[in-house]
C-alpha cells in the first residue's frame, strides 16, 4: 500500500470520527480505557516496588534493632568488667582478699555470668577465680580466646571482648580488662550465650536471624546454640560477611542446598554491630517476604476493570441523550438561518440543552430587534456625516487663524491674542487658556525687564559705597602709620632718658646738672604721648564712620540678594506656564487625533504651541543660569562685606587699646617728670630716686614697644579692609553685567505693557529721588517697586493700598468668569471629555485669573502718583 493510499484512509477515518458525535464518544472511551490500563500497569509496578521496599525495610529495621541490642549487651558487660578491674580489692596482694572481692562482685552481676577470674597475662594462668576448679589453670588462646598477653591492650582502662568458645559443652564469651596499678594482671568475666541467643527472633515467618563474626565467618550468636561456632550457611552467597560490615544492606540470594530456611530463593538483610566485627543477618524465604505483592496486584486490576466497565456504560447513556438533543438544536439553528423566526423551540428541559434552547429563542428575538435598529441607524448616520463635515471645515479655518497668531508669538510678539469665538467648545477653551497664558507671560517679561534695571541700579550704588569705604580705609591706614612713627620716636626718647639716668646714677653732681635737661625731655615725651592719644581718638572716629558705611552697604546687599531671589521666583512661574502650555499642546494633539484627517490644521496648532512651550522653557533655563550666577556674585559680595564688618570692628578695638596704652604712657611720663623735679629739690635722696626713675622708664619703653606693635596690626587690618572693599567693588560690577544680560534677554519680547511700564519706572525713579533727599538711601531703595527693607515710607503704603484696591476690583470683575460650582477652581487642569462632545475642558484657578488685570493696573498706579511700578503689580499677582 502506497503512502498516498494510507493518507487517504486516515483522512476518511478522521472525517468519519469528526462527523459523528457517537464516534467521538467511542474514541474518548477507548482512549480513557487505554490510559486507565497504562496507569494501572504503572500503579502495579509502583505498588510492587513499594511493597518490596517495605519488606526489605522491615527486615533491615529488625536487624538494626537487634544489632543495637547486642551492642548494648556488649557495652553493659564491658562496664561490669571495667568496674571489677578498678575495685581496690583486686589490687591487693592477698589471694584471699582478691577472691572475696571477685565473689562479692559476681553476686551483683547478671545470672548469665559464669565465672570471674583474676588472670595473670604474663603466665596465662588463672590465679584466683570464683570457680575453685579453675584456679591455677593455664590456658592458651586456642582454648580460651581471651587468654592474651599484656600487648593486647593499648592502655590500662581498655576492655575487650573476644570470639565465643566452647567450655563444658556451653557457648561462652569472655571480657577482659587490665587491673589498675597491677601490671600484667587482668579481670576476666565469662558469660553464657544461650540466654542472649534465645532473644534472636526473625521478623518474617519461616525466617532466621543470627549474629555472624566477620573475622571468622562463623556464627557468634543464634537462637539455636548448635549453630554457634559453625560457618554461616550463606557465607558463600554473602561475600560481604568476610570483611567488616560498615552499613546495612539487603540482598536476594538463591541456595537450593541449604536446609536452615525453607525454599531456595531467600531475601537477606545485614546490619553491623558497632564496636565489634560482628553483623546481624536476617534470612527469610522470598515468598514470605514478598507474598503481599500478588494480592495488591490483583486488587488494582479488579479496580481498573470495574472503572472501564462503568465508563462504557456512562458513555452509552450520554451518547444516546446527547445525540437526540443535538439534532433538535441543529434543527432550530437551520430554521433561524433560513429566516424562519416562527419556528417552535422546545424549552421544557432544565439542563444545559434546555438552556441552549432558551438561548436560541433569545437570539431569534435579538435578531429581529437588531434588524429594525440597523435600518433606523442608517438614516441617523447620513445626518451625522453632514454635521461632521461642516464641523471639520470650521476647525480647519480656526486652526489656520490660531497658527498665524502662534507664529507671531513665537517670534516675540506678545501683543497678539487668539479669537475665542468658535462653534467648538474645545477650540474656545483652548483659545481662552492660551490668551490667559500669554497675558501672564507678557506681564512676567515686563516684570523681569524692570527687575533687571533695579539690579543694575543697586549694583551701581554698591560700587559707589565700596569706593567711599575704600577711601576712608586709606585714611585710617595713614593715621595709624603716623601713630606708629610717633610711637617709635617716643621709644627712642625713652631710651635716651634711660641712658641719661644711668649716667646720673654714677655721681650725684652729674644728676644735679642733668636734671633740667631730663625734665625738658620728660615734658616732650608727655606732649608726644598726648599727641598720640589725640591721633588715636581721630582714628576711632574714622573707624566708626567706616563701620556705619559698611553697615549700610551690608543692608543694601541683603536687599539686593532678596531681589535676586524674587527674580528666581518669577522665572519659576514662567517655567510653570511653559509646563501648562505643554499640557495644552498635548490635549490639542489628542483632539487632532480624534478628528482624523479633518484635524490636520488643529495638529499644526498643537505643534506650534508645543514649539512655543519648548522655546519658553529654553529661555527660562538660560535666565535661571544667569540668576544662579547673579546669586553667586551676590553671595560673594555679601560674604566680603560681612568679613569687612568684622575686620572693622577688630580694628576699632585695637585702636581703643592703643588709646588706653597712650594714656598709660602719658601718666607714666608725668610721674617721671615729677620724680625728676623731686630730684632737683632733694639731691640727698638722688641715688634711690634715680633707681626708681630707671625702672619707670623701662616700663614706659616696654609700653612704647607694645604700642608700636599694635599700631602695625591696625595698619595691616586697614590694608586687608581696603583689599576686601576692592573685591566687593569687582563683585558688584560683575553683578551689574549679569543684570544687563538678563535685561537684554527680556527685551527680546515685545509686550503691550512695555510703554506703560517704562513710564511707571520713570515716575518711580523720580519718587525715589525725592524720598532719598528726605529720608536717606534706605527709603530710596524701598521705592523701586520691590519693598524689601523695613523703612518703606507712608507714601509707598498708600500706593500699595491703592494698587490692592484696584486689583480687588479686577478680581471681582473676573469672578464672573470663574467655573461653576463643583468644578475645580484651585489649579489649571486640562481634561479629555469621555463622551467625545467636548474634547477639552479647561479649569483656571482664581489665583491666576487676575494676572492680566494686575499687570495693566501697574501703569495706572504709577500714573496716579504712586511710587510702586509695574514690578509691584506683577509681584503681587
Produce the secondary structure layout.
Elements: H1 3-19, H2 21-85, H3 95-108, E1 113-120, E2 125-129, E3 160-161, E4 165-167, E5 170-178, E6 185-192, H4 194-197, E7 208-213, E8 219-222, E9 249-254, E10 265-273, E11 278-285, H5 286-289, H6 292-337, H7 352-410, H8 425-504, H9 508-595, H10 600-681, H11 686-746, H12 754-775, H13 777-782, H14 794-814, E12 829-831, E13 841-843, H15 851-863, H16 870-876
Antiparallel strand pairs: 1-2, 1-6, 3-5, 4-5, 5-6, 7-8, 7-11, 9-10, 10-11, 12-13
Organism: Halorubrum hochstenium ATCC 700873
Coiled coil: 364-458
Domain Methyl-accepting transducer: 465-701
What can be said about this structure in brief?
The chain has 877 residues and is of the alpha+beta class.
Q: Write the element-wise H/E pattern from the N-terminal end onward.
A: HHHEEEEEEHEEEEEHHHHHHHHHHEEHH
Structural class call reads: alpha+beta
Assign a percent range to the helix content.
55-70%
Characterize the main sheet: 6 strands, antiparallel
- Terminal residue distance: 98 Å
Could you please say which CATH topology of the domain at 50-289 applies here?
Answer: Beta-Lactamase
**How many helical elements?**
16
What's the shape?
flat
In the CATH hierarchy, the architecture of the domain at 50-289 is 2-Layer Sandwich
How much of the sequence lies in strands comes to 5-15%
Radius of gyration: 62 Å
Extended strand count: 13
Say which CATH homologous superfamily of the domain at 50-289 is assigned: PAS domain
Low confidence ranges: 770-877
What is the CATH domain class of the domain at 50-289? Alpha Beta
Mean pLDDT: 73
Amino acid at each position: 500500500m502506497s503512502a498516498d493510499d494510507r493518507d487517504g484512509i486516515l483522512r476518511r477515518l478522521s472525517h468519519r470520527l469528526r462527523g459523528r458525535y457517537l464516534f467521538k464518544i467511542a474514541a474518548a472511551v477507548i482512549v480513557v480505557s487505554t490510559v486507565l490500563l497504562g496507569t494501572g500497569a504503572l500503579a502495579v509496578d509502583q505498588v510492587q516496588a513499594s511493597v518490596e521496599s517495605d519488606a526489605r525495610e522491615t527486615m533491615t529495621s529488625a536487624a538494626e534493632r537487634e544489632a543495637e541490642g547486642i551492642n548494648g549487651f556488649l557495652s553493659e558487660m564491658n562496664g561490669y568488667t571495667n568496674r571489677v578491674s578498678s575495685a581496690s580489692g583486686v589490687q591487693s596482694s592477698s589471694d584471699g582478699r582478691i577472691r572475696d572481692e571477685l565473689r562479692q562482685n559476681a553476686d551483683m552481676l547478671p545470672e548469665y555470668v559464669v565465672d570471674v577470674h583474676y588472670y595473670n597475662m604474663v603466665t596465662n594462668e588463672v590465679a584466683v577465680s570464683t570457680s575453685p576448679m579453675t584456679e591455677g589453670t593455664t590456658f592458651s588462646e586456642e582454648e580460651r580466646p581471651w587468654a592474651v598477653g599484656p600487648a593486647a591492650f593499648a592502655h590500662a582502662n581498655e576492655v575487650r571482648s573476644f570470639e565465643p568458645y566452647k567450655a563444658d559443652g556451653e557457648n561462652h564469651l569472655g571480657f577482659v580488662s587490665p587491673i589498675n596499678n597491677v601490671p600484667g594482671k587482668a579481670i576476666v568475666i565469662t558469660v553464657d550465650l544461650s540466654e542472649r541467643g534465645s532473644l534472636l527472633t526473625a521478623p518474617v515467618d519461616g525466617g532466621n536471624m543470627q549474629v555472624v563474626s566477620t573475622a571468622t565467618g562463623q556464627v557468634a550468636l543464634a537462637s539455636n546454640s548448635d549453630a554457634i561456632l559453625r560457618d554461616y550457611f550463606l557465607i558463600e552467597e554473602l561475600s560481604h560477611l568476610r570483611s567488616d560490615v560498615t552499613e546495612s544492606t539487603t540482598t536476594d540470594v538463591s541456595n537450593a542446598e541449604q536446609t536452615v530456611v525453607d525454599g531456595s530463593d531467600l531475601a537477606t538483610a545485614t546490619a553491623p554491630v558497632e564496636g565489634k566485627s560482628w553483623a546481624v543477618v536476617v534470612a527469610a524465604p522470598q515468598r514470605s517476604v514478598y507474598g503481599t505483592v500478588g494480592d495488591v496486584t490483583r486488587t488494582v486490576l479488579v479496580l481498573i476493570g470495574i472503572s472501564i466497565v462503568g465508563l462504557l456504560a456512562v458513555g452509552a447513556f450520554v451518547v444516546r441523550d446527547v445525540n437526540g438533543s443535538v439534532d433538535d438544536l441543529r434543527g432550530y439553528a437551520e430554521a433561524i438561518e433560513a429566516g424562519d423566526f416562527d419556528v417552535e423551540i422546545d424549552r421544557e428541559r432544565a439542563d444545559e440543552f434546555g438552556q441552549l434552547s432558551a438561548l436560541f429563542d433569545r437570539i431569534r428575538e435579538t435578531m429581529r430587534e437588531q434588524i429594525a435598529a440597523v435600518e433606523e441607524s442608517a438614516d441617523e448616520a447620513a445626518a451625522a456625516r453632514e454635521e461632521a463635515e461642516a464641523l471639520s471645515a470650521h476647525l480647519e479655518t480656526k486652526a489656520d487663524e490660531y497658527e498665524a497668531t502662534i507664529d507671531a508669538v513665537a517670534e516675540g510678539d506678545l501683543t497678539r491674542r487668539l479669537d475665542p469665538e468658535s462653534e467648538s467648545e474645545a477650540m474656545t477653551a483652548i483659545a481662552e487658556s492660551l490668551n490667559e497664558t500669554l497675558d501672564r507671560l507678557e506681564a512676567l517679561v515686563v516684570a523681569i525687564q524692570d527687575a533687571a534695571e533695579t539690579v543694575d541700579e543697586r549694583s551701581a550704588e554698591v560700587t559707589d559705597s565700596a569706593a567711599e569705604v575704600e577711601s576712608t580705609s586709606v585714611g585710617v591706614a595713614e593715621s595709624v602709620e603716623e601713630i606708629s612713627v610717633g610711637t617709635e620716636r617716643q621709644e627712642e626718647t625713652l631710651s635716651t632718658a634711660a641712658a641719661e639716668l644711668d649716667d646720673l646714677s654714677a655721681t650725684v653732681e652729674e644728676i644735679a646738672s642733668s636734671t633740667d635737661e631730663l625734665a625738658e625731655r620728660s615734658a616732650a615725651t608727655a606732649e608726644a604721648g598726648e599727641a598720640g592719644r589725640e591721633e588715636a581718638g581721630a582714628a576711632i572716629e574714622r573707624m566708626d564712620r567706616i563701620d556705619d558705611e559698611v553697615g549700610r552697604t551690608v543692608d543694601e546687599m541683603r536687599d539686593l540678594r532678596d531681589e535676586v531671589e524674587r527674580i528666581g521666583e518669577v522665572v519659576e512661574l514662567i517655567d510653570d506656564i511653559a509646563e501648562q502650555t505643554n499640557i495644552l499642546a498635548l490635549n490639542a494633539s489628542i483632539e487632532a487625533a480624534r478628528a482624523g484627517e479633518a484635524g490636520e490644521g488643529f495638529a499644526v496648532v498643537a505643534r506650534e504651541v508645543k514649539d512655543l512651550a519648548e522655546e519658553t522653557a529654553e529661555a527660562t533655563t538660560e535666565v535661571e543660569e544667569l540668576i544662579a550666577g547673579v546669586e553667586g556674585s551676590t553671595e560673594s559680595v555679601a560674604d566680603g562685606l560681612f568679613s569687612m564688618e568684622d575686620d572693622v570692628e577688630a580694628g576699632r578695638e585695637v585702636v581703643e587699646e592703643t588709646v588706653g596704652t597712650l594714656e598709660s604712657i602719658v601718666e607714666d611720663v608725668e610721674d617721671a617728670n615729677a620724680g625728676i623735679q623731686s630730684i632737683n629739690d632733694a639731691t640727698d635722696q638722688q641715688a634711690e630716686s634715680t633707681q626708681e626713675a630707671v625702672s619707670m622708664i623701662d616700663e614706659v619703653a616696654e609700653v612704647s614697644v607694645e604700642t608700636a606693635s599694635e599700631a602695625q596690626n591696625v595698619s595691616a587690618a586697614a590694608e586687608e579692609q581696603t583689599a576686601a572693599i576692592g573685591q566687593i567693588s569687582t563683585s558688584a560690577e560683575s553683578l551689574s553685567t549679569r543684570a544687563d544680560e538678563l535685561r537684554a534677554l527680556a527685551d527680546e519680547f515685545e509686550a503691550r505693557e512695555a510703554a506703560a511700564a517704562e513710564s511707571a519706572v520713570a515716575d518711580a525713579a523720580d519718587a525715589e529721588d525725592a524720598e532719598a533727599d528726605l529720608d536717606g538711601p534706605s527709603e530710596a531703595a524701598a521705592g523701586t517697586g520691590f519693598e524689601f527693607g523695613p523703612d518703606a515710607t507712608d507714601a509707598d503704603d498708600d500706593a500699595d493700598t491703592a494698587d490692592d484696591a484696584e486689583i480687588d476690583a479686577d478680581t471681582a470683575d473676573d469672578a464672573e468668569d470663574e467655573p461653576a460650582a463643583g468644578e475645580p477652581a484651585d489649579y489649571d487642569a486640562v481634561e479629555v471629555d469621555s463622551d467625545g462632545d467636548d474634547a477639552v475642558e479647561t479649569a483656571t484657578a482664581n489665583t491666576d485669573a487676575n494676572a492680566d488685570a494686575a499687570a495693566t493696573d501697574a501703569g495706572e498706579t504709577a500714573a496716579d502718583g504712586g511710587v510702586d511700578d509695574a514690578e509691584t503689580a506683577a509681584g503681587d499677582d
